[in-house]
Predict the structure.
Amino acid sequence: MVQCSTEYDLAILGGSTGSRLAAMRAAQMGARVALIAPCWQLNDAVEASFRAIAQPGLERSHPWAHGRALFEVECRHRPLSPAQLRACGVDVVLAGASFSQTKSLKVEQRHIQASRYLLADGYSFSPSPSGALLCHQLMQLDVLPENITLVGGGAAAVEWAFGLSRFAKVTLLSPQPRLLPAEDGDIERLMAAQLRSLGVAIAALDGDFTYAAEQMATMAETGQVVLVPQYQVDASLGMAQLGIEAGDLSVNAYLQVRQWPQLYAVGACLGGVNRAALAQQEMAIALDNALFNARRPMGYERVFYGIHGLSPVGRWGLTEQQAHHRYGARAVVFKSSCLPVAEHGGDTNFCKLITLGKTLIGIHLMGRGAMDLVSVLARCETMPTLAPWAAGQYRSGTLYQAIYQAIAQWENQRWQPGQWRRDWAENWFNWRRSQGN
């Protein structure tokens, strides 16, 4: 007999670290929260395996056994266990759920009824086809294959390619023509160049790739086929009961699903950039809107996140293409790069600042510290505020130098002949000389 549980204020369908943090935050604010996470262990394995191979101090000379040891350490120190969340007042359900005709969630032998629902990352993953492994499953191998064909697109695939290149010869096959379609063109070009410098071959898949058995067999002839794990909306979730067909999940500015506003959605299930930092920014907006009936819009023109690589990337705001599409010639770009210091010989230091008048509308950094610096620069908001900060932080051969040089370009442009500042200054100097002062 199916029993109905007490009604919740919010039911979160997830499993990623971001969804766990969201559930804990909602409970701390006094809400009655349920977290349905059938893939809890899989989320831990995916996140721990990436953290293991992306360790900054891990070099090519380290054997694969060292990477596996780091993975085991990461697994033992995963944040926010089910017991910890339950101690905070979160009802953690480690089983799959399905929406019923009454628009409640059927979970095992009960129904979960909530005022609002939130679909987040980590609820379910795309399955691994025959003849291929998912990235985290490589940690089960005692010996890593010499050649790996990595299939996936976007920032996640690039990060895995960088990490695995420390242990094997990697071929990255992207289902999209562009390696990083959501990123600025200069950042994409530099990331591709660094991958190739590490021996990673990059190619785009021909036509529609469906993970068919014959395609797996063909690629397996040159090495182990590995797929980048992808979050997906499982058909067993019963979204059709809400009037949502497969592949038709879309949200409004408040992250409410258009077909059923009681459901909010964030993260990779929306089909955008698969970045945990971006999903957490969406989560903060969705939580306020879902719990307190707020109407906070999600402003994607001010989001920030990073991409791990040989030289980390930090991004805030619009790309150059987006800025020119929205503002035309009024959007002005200033970019600079510098050679790294000797001990950071593999780094690229690059800075691109996109402005609208005095206002910053886009920041794209590449180099050591880029992920932290991009949020610092974004808080400055305007170029006159940023300029004195950069002057005080200048260090030759680092990312700070590239930032300083990009700002210097902006300042030089303001004083070019024909600009009102230059005309005013020349008139002032002419008048002062005429006075004999």
Summary: The first strand starts at residue 3 and ends at 4.
